[in-house]
Amino acid sequence: MAQDRPTAAELLAAIADFLREEATPALDRTEPRLGFQMRVAVNALAILERESRLGPAADAREHARLVALLGRDGPLADLNRELARQLRAGDRDERDAALMAHLEATIADKIAIANPKWR
Amino acid sequence: MTVHTVNEPDLVATGLAAASSRHFGGPAAIEGLRRESGGASRQTWSFDAVVGGQRHALILRRDPPTAGGREKASATALDRPTEFAVLRAAFAGGVRAPEPLFELDSADGLGEAFVMRRVGGIAIARKLLRDPPYAEARARIAGQLGEIVARIHAVDTASLPPLPHREAADQVAALRAVLDSLDQPQPVFELALSWLDRRRPAPTGRARLVHGDFRTGNYLADESGVTAILDWEGAHLGDPVEDLGWLCVKSWRFGAVDKPAGGFGSRAELWSSYADAGGGAVDPARAHWWEVFGTVRWGVICLTQAWRHLSGSVKSMELASIGRRAVETEVDLLQLLKEAR
Fold first, then answer.
1. I need a labelling partner for A82 at 20 to 30 A (CA). Which of A35, A116, B104, B260 fits?
2. Shortest CB distance from A104 goes to which of B185, B194, B334?
3. A65-101 pLDDT, tens per residue?
4. CATH architecture assigned to B122-161+207-239+250-278
């Protein structure tokens, strides 16, 4: 059953905004150590907000690319396990253009969720 | 789990008073005791010991006694007595490091612990990289780090306690073993480790003292530049270029991405000051290898830090969050491998 608005992303954003704008300044005045921890929490909430918006489509793209690359289907974790095994064994390496295109796209989607400002 | 006492500062002050009195040869009053940093398992405390009217500004490094075994930050970290012995050898060898003074004994009740002299300066990378008082220091730090690390690598290995010897091949194998223990497939780290494995530099002819965690965030600096190298628990014998590569890992630039030497200068600047200080000419390919290695290493550390929380050994939102930083090193690795192709 679909939940009512707010969506998960909207609710996470509302919580993060409240903690950042109201709770953090109050903590900084009284308990600086907790103020730092609160910033970590707010940052983690922002990751979850992006993940709830962008994660499902990113996972689907990663899965489709892995199926094409490995020539077999299966759960995402199994396909990644197989790719990791091939990379450790040296069956594929950085000279494989299709592999590198897959990894570039996967990591671009991951960093867009975890830390879009990273460069 | 750490044994939490009702009043930890009182316990620490009592232990420090006894140990300081023994060391300074007179009754010591402990003043200004303050917990500086560290998790439950590794603590740093700042305090003054006042003995016969004289004030000594000091730092305590301490692993509290634990029930059910030690919760280590990493499988390769040195224990406190060995770290103390390494610090003593480095200080005696002229390395800019805090002067180690004395160890506590078990009767002091604080666990494995030692005391060193407090050195001025801050370790907070973002302040050092951006705040106005450090403008002049910023121009000097890369060169100073080159000189200091050359001095570390020149420490007489006969003056050191027994230390693990880890060359490139051992380090690659160790990271693979960690990835296996986490049971979460990591294609980019596997790609990078295979790349590293195929290009392993030859073992060093003569193993040197390697600091093992030589990076921005692990030294103190003031307006004049670097005042002391901290955090010696990763020290080992091995390839000295490891320290130069680790310092240049992008994660330690804290946004100053165009300044590879810890966010303060170029690789060329670092290497020339290292050579001028007697460290020898740096082989760029070897340094690049260690920079790629260091990038994988930090990525794997991010995962293991999260795992300390996930496994239930330490409950920490901060550690859990670090797991989501691993992808930053995946971005950097794909870039590094592209440049090297």
1. A116
2. B334
3. 999 999 999 999 999 999 999 999 999 999 999 999 9
4. Orthogonal Bundle (1.10)
> Domain B8-117 falls in which CATH fold?
Phosphorylase Kinase; domain 1 (3.30.200)
Task: Confirm or reject contact between A94 and chain B (CB < 8 A).
Answer: yes
Q: Where are the domains of chain B?
A: 8-117, 122-161+207-239+250-278, 168-202+283-341
Cα dist from A105 to A21, B61, B91, B339, whole Å:
34, 45, 48, 18
CA B204/CA B155 separation, integer angstroms: 16
Cα–Cα distance for residue pair A35/B229, rounded to 1 Å: 28
B window 165-194, beta carbon within 8 A of A: 176, 185-188, 190-191, 193-194
Placement of tokens 């530049």 in the chain: B225
Q: Which residue of B has its CA nearest to A92?
A: B191
Residue of chain B whose alpha carbon sits nearest to that of A66: B187
Does pLDDT of A32 surpass 80? Answer: yes
Residue listed under structure tokens 């000295």: B240
Ramachandran assignment for B130, one of left (phi > 0), alpha (psi -120 to 50 degrees), beta (any other)? alpha
B100-131 pLDDT per residue, tens: 999 999 999 999 999 999 999 999 999 999 99
Question: Is residue B68 pLDDT above 50, yes or no?
Answer: no
Residues in B touching A115 (Cβ below 8 Å): 324-325, 327-328
| ipTM rounded to 2 decimals | 0.95
Q: Which of A93, A99, A115 sits opposite B328 (nearest CB)?
A: A115
In this predicted structure, the answer to whether residue A40 has a pLDDT above a threshold of 70 is yes
Domain range list for chain A: 8-114
Query: Does the beta carbon of A2 lie under 8 angstroms from any beta carbon of chain B?
Result: no
Q: How far is A88 from chain B (nearest CA, A)?
A: 6
Average pLDDT over chain B reads 93
* Cβ–Cβ pairs < 8 A, chains A and B: 70
